[in-house]
Design goal:
The protein has 401 residues and is an alpha/beta fold. Helix content is 26%, strand content 19%. It has two domains: 2-115 and 330-400, 3-Layer(bba) Sandwich (FAD/NAD(P)-binding domain), CATH 3.50.50.60; 117-328, FAD/NAD(P)-binding domain, CATH 3.50.50. The strands form nine sheets. Strands 8-19-9-10-15 form a five-stranded parallel β-sheet.
Length: 401
Amino acid sequence: MSRCLSDCSIDHVVLERGEVAHTWRTERWDSLRLLTPNWQSRLPGLSYSGGDPDGYRTLTEVIDFITNYANAISAPVRTHTMVTSVRGTEMGYLVRTDHGDWLCRAIVVASGACNIAEIPTFANRVPPSIVQLTAQEYRNPEQLPDSGVLVVGASSSGTQIAYEIHRSGRPVTLSVGEHIRAPRVYRGKDLEWWMDAAGMLDERYDEIDDIARARRVPSLQLAGTLDRSTLDINALTGIGVEVVGRLGGISERGKAQFSGSLRNMCALSDLKMGRLLDRIDEWAQKNGLDGVVGPPHRLPPTRVDPAPPLGMDLTTREVKAIIWATGYRPDYSWLEVPVLDRKGRLQHDGGVVSAPGLYLMGTQFMRRRKSALIDGAGDDARDLSAHLTAYLGSRLARIRA
């Protein structure tokens, strides 16, 4: 957005609570790799030029990538500047920070959608002897006791963390809720290549029947594995991870209760994956790629124990740690403008917030299916900076009139 505002000759400042790429520096586990291939890290004025386009950036490489981009475009970043409140004024907005106040005519909220880990309310019934960490707090297995671990959540974060902890020699139980299974590579191409080429990632929010539902869909069960392998429930059970249903509650006596719908949940995930691959196959056939790429194929169905455990006594079992990979929510506690719905979500139309001069960046399916990806930031920023420029122009015209 800063690059696009500069292209439009809009004077602006970027306020950052820590260093550039702060959350990548402070809220990610050590071995994390970007889920999108290197070629897909495209930003305005920058594309990948290295020798490993199909690889996946390490955590350090992601931090360097974002930092170098900020330097390359001379972004006017004020680091270690925490925004404490934003209020409307007659002329625009008053932004209060721990390093002084700012007056501005427009604001772009780019604080992310993953600020606060979502933990179920019954987590307070976990026995005090058990270590609890969110995916935001987890760094590596050395943080954990040398014993069994329960990982709650089976989207991309949960599956990767479960895999790493199991590889450290600790027994792992994975609690599986709603998830979307996906192959890392399909017909010889990365799944992201297919979704990009077929235009799926460019699908707009105003083309979707139920955009509220689309914005709540879990992330694809992908991982940036070195060998480009698929990390799904079959891969995890194949190495000995125990799989149970969704964690529905914990009794006052410390007994975890799992849903009995594990088989149905996995069957539904397989069905969604099949629909996605059917769509890719149809696009490939229409565009003459059937003779160029590999043949269509399907992964075997998710293998599920016919009678998975429905309970676990956390007071007596060998599980001594729980990782909550149960998702996140944004933090708008500093935004003192009446633009939030009753669930605390920012009300907007493709990133144009209901309050004049207020914009949003970087949330799930904001303007396009790829809005939450690095690759989606550029297109969204171009659209919104054009809208912002027009808004400022019309506002100036009214003042002069």
